[in-house]
Amino acid sequence: MAESELSPKFAPFFGMGGIASAMIFGSIGAAYGTAKSGIGIAGVGTFRPDLIMKVKLIALYGVIDDS
Question: Count of domains in the chain?
């Protein structure tokens, strides 16, 4: 890669670091959200077993809608 006045040699390092941090924090956020929804589904299953299938369908529709 050629040296330029507008782009120093270490610029790709910070660019790739930004990409890596976005992927890492995005994955952590997705894992946290999945864990929280799993806890909610398990809680509904213990207190209201008649609603468990409805909650599973809502969660499935949410996953399909997000993708």
Answer: 1
Among all chains, which residue has been given the structure tokens 């952590």? 28
Query: Could you tell me the residue range of the domain that residue 65 belongs to?
Result: 33-67
- Report yes or no on 21 lying in a domain: no
DSSP 6: S
Please name the residues in contact with 67: beta carbons below 8 A apart, sequence gap of 6 or more.
Answer: none
Cβ atoms of 41 and 59 within 8 Å: the answer is: yes
Over the stretch 12-26, which tens digit does the pLDDT of each residue have? 999 999 999 999 999
pTM value?
Answer: 0.60
